[in-house]
Amino acid sequence: MNIKKLWIVGPVTILAVSACGLLVTGQGFGADSLDGVHAQVLAEKETSQAVRTDKEPAPAQDPSARNPQDETERESEKPDEEASAEMAALPAAINPLTGLPVSDPETLRLPPALVSVTNFPVPARPQAGLSYSPIIFELYIGEGMTRYLALFYGDYPEASVPHGESDARAELGEGVPAPSIGPVRSGRLPYEYVRQLYNGFIVMASAYSKVAAQLKDFVNVFGDDQSDPNSAMIPVEVLREIAEGNEYALGSAELTGMAFDPQPPENGKVAQSLWIFYAYKNQVFWRYNASDCSYHRWQDNADGATFIEQTDRLNGEPLTYENVIVLFAEHEVENSYLIDIDLLYVKRGKALLFRDGLVQDIYWTTASEEYEKTTGKLRPIRFVDAQGNPVMLKPGQTWIELMPPHLAFWETVDSEIYNRLAAGRKKGSGYWGLYFKLDD
Questions:
Q1: Which of 18, 203, 398, 418 has the lowest tally of Cβ within 10 angstroms?
Q2: 241-270: string of b/e by CB count within 10 Å (b at 16+)?
Q3: CA dihedral (367, 370, 371, 377) positive or negative
Q4: Are the C-beta atoms of 434 and 403 separated by less than 8 Å?
Q5: pLDDT (average), residues 72-81
Q6: Helices (DSSP H) in 221-300: which residue ranges?
Q7: 339, 189 in Cβ contact below 8 A?
Q8: Could you please report the per-residue DSSP string of 104-134?
Q9: 3-state secondary structure of 82
């Protein structure tokens, strides 16, 4: 691999609490500050331990019987309120791709890993590790199928489903080093553009020669069962070792550009769900869940009728995303399996943002601005409004559906039956439909 060095400059946020849990907003600092941040995290831990009051309460004493020595001891045990206030005001180490704190600031020094994760055939589901990915791209790969490019940056996945359980998730993970990510499948042409934008490296299970020739900075992972196309998995510890081995090889680059705000947008239309028709046996529902203020992913079981809530094999938890973005970009079809997507140097493309149960018309850009012009490097996709101002995403994870332009998008009816969804028209229902169509 010819991998370049990466230093991260990302947003720092101030913690806030809402009905949906811990949220953050704020400005950014660079990786050069991470040593200080790491020291701050340790100091906070030590401070919290120092002020714990685990001791048995002392017996009540006569207030009139004051002992000067006791007063001195009490003063020495009293926490320094000013120091505590200053410590509380210090920023946490923030992932610039989620706007949320990371538990291990050192991971922000490492380059993002872009893992090609399969969605077909159905036995590949549930996939492992997706619930830990800050950003996932879903793209059409032909014959009605889609594939995921899952970006891992910041805290790495952990497994919490014990081995040896008799349920389906445990069976799927049997014999696989835990935790692992996957199943890993072959590379696709658009991966290289995403890699450049996020200054990372690709993990894939090889690629067609014409595709591989256009990809850079990649690692191949192969399965141990030739009869099973979904046997390739990459252990998280191996993924981290690869990233750590190239910490100084990715060049100085920023992952800034995304903006976050926990407050729901003032404008937008009600969006209780989004139905995406890729093919009859590949239909997706994104359903808003008010209890956790995120969208949950449901997908048909390759039968066009039985919709199953998608989960993460590592922990059994539903796949939930605070932001679901439909990004319209030009698709170039070379043949049924060779589909390219134009993502670089786009001045302004249309997009839809689903967050907080609302949908907004927004735009996306990868055009060169001052940073790109002065450094010659790229930054992540930025989301803006009609005036070019940053669009605020909800702090958390983002799922990006890559779609061709000019697709049918409308309010449909509340149903899981294809004919009713496709023909349904009900303005103000909050149930949205998007019909995928790719010109040859």
A1: 18
A2: ebbeebeeebeebbbbbbbbbbebbeebee
A3: positive
A4: yes
A5: 45
A6: 236-245
A7: yes
A8: -GGGGGSPPEEEEE---SGGGPSPBSGGG-S
A9: helix
> Lowest-confidence range among 3-7, 95-99, 170-174, 333-337?
3-7
Phi/psi zone of residue 190: left (φ > 0), alpha (ψ -120 to 50 degrees), beta? alpha
- Quote the tokens at residue 97: 């791709």
> What whole-number distance in Å separates Cα of residue 364 and Cα of residue 329?
10
Predicted confidence band of residue 151 (pLDDT cuts 50, 70, 90): very high
Cis before 121? omega within 30: yes
For CA atoms 53, 57, 58, 62, the dihedral sign is positive
What does the alpha-carbon distance between residue 234 and residue 204 come to, in Å, rounded to a whole number? 10
Burial of 12 (0-12, 13-18, 19+ CB in 10 A): buried
The whole-angstrom separation of Cα 390 and Cα 393 is: 9
Specify burial of residue 320 (Cβ count, 10 A radius: 0-12, 13-18, 19+): buried
* Tokens at 238, concatenated: 């191996």
Q: What angle do CA 304, 305, 309 make, to 5 degrees?
A: 100
Task: With beta carbons less than 8 A apart as the criterion, state whether 323 and 394 touch.
Answer: yes
Residues 6+ apart with CB under 8 A from 370: none
Could you say which DSSP state residue 63 is in? T
Q: Determine the 3-state secondary structure of 312 from DSSP.
A: coil
| Range from 98-102, 218-222, 372-376 carrying the lowest mean pLDDT | 372-376
Residue 31 DSSP code: G
Domains of the chain, CATH where assigned: 107-435 (3.50.90.10)
Strands 234-235 and 392-393, how do they pair?
unpaired
CA gyration radius, the chain: 24
